[in-house]
Design brief:
The complex is a heterodimer. Chain A is built from 6 helices and 9 strands. By secondary structure, chain A is α+β, with helices and mostly antiparallel strands. Chain A folds into 2 domains: about 80 residues, Ubiquitin-like (UB roll) (Roll); about 150 residues, Alpha-Beta Plaits (2-Layer Sandwich), CATH 3.30.70.20. Chain A is globular, with a radius of gyration of 19 Å. The radius of gyration of chain B is 24 Å and the shape is globular. Chain B has 4 domains: about 100 residues, Glutaredoxin (3-Layer(aba) Sandwich); about 200 residues, NADH-ubiquinone oxidoreductase 51kDa subunit (Rossmann fold), CATH 3.40.50.11540; about 80 residues, Ubiquitin-like (UB roll) (Roll), CATH 3.10.20; about 80 residues, NADH-ubiquinone oxidoreductase 51kDa subunit, iron-sulphur binding domain (de novo design (two linked rop proteins), Up-down Bundle). Chain B is about 45% helix and about 15% strand. In chain B, β12 and β13 form a beta hairpin. The chains are: A alpha+beta, B alpha/beta.
């Protein structure tokens, strides 16, 4: 394989001149420059899937909105991360996420430590714009340490990616499609019976909501260790 | 094994001579429409009857692909080689077989089943892609070769450089027939110029739009033309491997293609070192398991790789990072079926057909409230009025025309006021619809447009893969909103939400499925807003 040379590229984000390496994404360069772009499915250290559509940005010359997490930077491009069009779309997307399943913060283990909840604060979303759909799913509490409550899942697939890419077990995957999409263990086995799950708990640590959580812990202990992924990757690199 | 152009022509001549010995030919359509009415049994019975009347030496019974007029299936055509006359019989039943056999001696005996081949349905068409459909036996490679098949491939390998092939396709102005309308020549060029040891050609036969059956008919009627088109694409782009992705719901197409590939490999027109040219090209079939989204380029590729058929964000484009991470050309069945005629007759000839920016022809599947439902091929720029009234024969039962839905769940509805629209990629887009793959559903005055929009939205809802938020949740929200209008329980706010939500889903979805899912809603809102207003109860 021919390895592409990494070059420095200069471009603009919201009118500010920035530079980045040619293999970086718009999101990475924005974060390096303290420019806030809301994300949900993105997690540093994992592959990018561009599925939640929160990080959509505009690029001058294109009519399309593209996710900043998957878009590689280009010399001279002009990126806008916040415009009325982007704002309207983000609010509606976040509304849709809240409407899809059952996100009742007051009874959730992740209340106060939830990325979905934080996003609503950031976007000043105090009510949702679409009717609640509230699909019902069965909770899997079979595992001795962890619970999977699909009713709080936003299908960001971080759990699937961390299990596959960092732990290397690929115990998790997706079943069904559309609105019925679910995260499953092995061939839709109860968690406790999954043969490939190593019970490492990384999926729980990276979950942005209370869909995956630890049993028998206090509120203070429920703090998710999302940065653990980068720590693990750095250790791996040192080895 | 055929080793050269001369040997190919010799085989074609032998086949033609053998055919001449048999003066009469009865061609029975075994395309899916006719087959569903028992045409295969009809063919067997006809074979038997010819044998028992000792006419086998004089008359051959041949299975052929779709001839287009599916509304009158099963169709059988009778050709006389000496007089070069051909008669078409419609709605043939088992009881007509004795008469049909008689007709070989006395041509008037089945006149009540005559189908006029001079009628507008046939006369107003321009057949390029469907040229061989209904004429050649799809199971017989020699029949294809006798109709100049594989000659273009052999001539090209002998006398043209890959970049000359690409130039020719570029000059022809051929655009993707799957709906996108991207220039095929440019697509090929972008893959040809990438340095890579492995490249792939993929034929997209995952036709999934409700009411569309153009690709099915093509694959069933003339599979070798698709294989030849793929081999030429492979030569032009520097690929030696091709995949045909066909949905498993098309068992006849799969059978015809598999058989065709086997025959082509046996004769050496596919495989290693074709005609000692140094060019090798192999084709394999992959079956789709019924997901509509797998017709989307990136999802299709993921599916061929053996994974769940989910789309991924572009870029990277397929020309840089396609199947197994290699540069890949993905073309629709009909696009590939256009390659051979373009290279045979030249780009200028192709460019002379159709409109300035959309050259050539387009195959449409006419369905819905229309007299002559079936498969038609017309030059680009033909008006909707010609398509629906002249070729299609108008609306049955004396009812009035209301709208035509083009492009399936990704397309839109076009009202009566735009019937004189000359159909090409740009004009349909301007009217709020798309060319799409070629499904054309005609709707009469009795249909409710909100219900129609709901049908397509529900289709997208059940076919959404669930990966991105706007498509996964948006299609459900939109379906439920449309239900409110149908139940006449909607409010003014619902109408506003319907519009806003449609724009969000269109603007922010990950792949083409979600991006185009609101089109049926938006186009019916544009032309039939009063039907939505009728569903509002708070005025």
């Amino acid at each position: 394989m021919i390895r592409e040379k990494v070059r420095v590229k200069s471009f603009k984000i919201n009118g500010i001149d920035v530079t980045g390496a040619s293999n970086q994404t718009i999101l990475e360069v924005a974060q390096d420059n303290n420019i806030e772009i809301p994300t949900l499915c993105y997690l540093k250290g994992l592959s990018c899937v561009g599925s939640c559509r929160m990080c959509i940005v505009e690029i001058k010359g294109s009519n399309q909105l593209i996710p900043a997490c998957t878009a590689k930077i280009k010399e001279g491009m002009e990126v806008t991360t916040d415009s009325p069009r982007i704002k309207t779309n983000r609010e509606m997307i976040l509304s849709m996420l809240f409407s899809e399943r059952t996100h009742t913060c007051s009874v959730c283990v992740s209340n106060g430590n939830c990325e979905l909840q934080n996003k609503a604060h950031e976007l000043h979303l105090d009510h949702i714009q679409v009717p609640y759909h509230n699909a019902r799913f069965e909770i899997d509490a079979s595992h001795k340490n962890f619970v999977n409550d699909p009713n709080r899942c936003i299908l960001c697939t971080r759990c699937i990616r961390v299990c596959d890419e960092i732990e290397g077990a690929h115990a998790l995957d997706i079943m069904d499609r559309g609105i019925d999409t679910r995260i499953i263990h092995d061939m839709d086995e109860p968690w406790a019976q999954s043969l490939s799950c190593t019970s490492c708990g990384k999926c729980v640590y990276v979950c942005p909501t209370g869909a995956l959580y630890e049993k028998d812990i206090s509120d203070e202990e429920a703090d998710k260790k999302r940065s653990i992924i980068m720590e693990l990757l750095e250790r791996k690199a040192q080895q | 094994m055929i080793n050269s152009l001369e040997e190919l022509e010799a085989l074609a001549n032998t086949k033609r001579c053998n055919e001449q010995n048999c003066q009469e030919e009865l061609r029975v359509c075994i395309g899916s429409s006719c087959a569903s009415l028992g045409s295969e049994l009809l063919k067997a019975a006809l074979d038997e009857a010819i044998k028992t009347s000792n006419m086998s030496a004089q008359c051959r019974v041949k299975a052929v692909g779709c001839n287009g007029l599916c509304a009158k299936a099963p169709l059988i055509s009778h050709c006389n080689r000496a007089t070069k006359q051909s008669t078409l019989y419609e709605e043939v039943q088992n009881a007509d077989i004795p008469d049909l056999v008689q007709s070989l001696l006395n041509p008037t005996s089945v006149s009540h089943k005559h189908c006029d081949t001079k009628q507008d349905f046939f006369a107003a068409q321009t057949k390029i892609v469907l040229q061989n459909a209904g004429i050649i036996d799809p199971d017989d490679i020699e029949d294809y070769i006798a109709h100049e098949g594989y000659k273009t491939l052999f001539e090209t390998l002998e006398s043209k450089l890959p970049n000359e092939v690409i130039e020719e396709i570029k000059k022809s102005g051929l655009r993707g027939r799957g709906g996108g309308g991207f220039y095929t020549g440019l697509k090929w060029e972008s893959v040809a110029k990438v340095q890579s040891e492995e490249k792939y050609i993929i034929c997209n036969g995952d036709e999934g739009d409700p009411g569309a059956f153009m690709d099915r008919a093509l694959m069933e009627a003339d599979p070798h033309r698709i294989l030849e088109g793929m081999a030429l694409a492979g030569y032009a782009c520097g690929a030696s491997m091709g995949y045909i992705y066909v949905r498993a719901e098309y068992p006849v197409a799969v059978a015809k293609l598999s058989h065709a590939i086997k025959q082509a490999k046996k004769l050496g027109v596919l495989g290693a070192n074709i005609a000692h040219s140094g060019f090798s090209f192999d084709i394999e079939i992959r079956l789709g398991a019924g997901a509509f989204v797998c017709g989307e380029a990136t999802a299709l590729i993921t599916s061929i790789e053996g994974n769940r058929g989910n789309p991924r964000q572009k870029p990277p484009h397929l020309s840089d990072y396609g199947l197994f991470g290699k540069p890949t050309v993905l073309n629709n069945v009909e696009t590939l079926a256009n390659i051979v005629p373009i290279l045979t007759n030249g780009a200028a000839w192709f460019k002379s057909i159709g409109t300035e920016n959309s050259s050539g022809t387009k195959v449409f599947a006419l369905t819905g409230h229309i007299q002559n439902s079936g498969l038609v091929e017309v030059a680009m720029g033909t008006t909707l009025r010609t398509l629906i009234y002249k070729i299609g024969g108008g609306i049955p039962d004396g009812k009035k025309f209301k709208a035509v839905q083009t492009g399936g769940p990704s397309g839109g509805c076009i009202p009566e006021s735009l019937l004189d629209l000359e159909v090409d990629y740009e004009s349909l887009k301007k009217a709020g619809s798309i060319m799409g793959s070629g499904g054309m559903i005609i709707i009469d005055e009795e249909a409710n447009m909100v219900e129609l929009a709901r049908f397509f939205m529900d289709f997208c809802r059940s076919e959404s893969c669930g990966k991105c938020t706007p498509c996964r949740v948006g299609t459900v929200q939109l379906t439920e909103l449309l239900d409110k209008f149908i139940d006449k329980k909607a409010t003014r706010n619902d109408l506003e939400l319907l519009q806003n939500l449609s724009y969000v889903v269109k603007d922010t979805s990950l792949c083409g499925l979600g991006q185009s899912a609101p089109n049926p809603v938006l186009s019916t809102l544009k032309y039939f807003e009063h039907e939505y207003l009728e569903g509002i109860s708070d005025d």
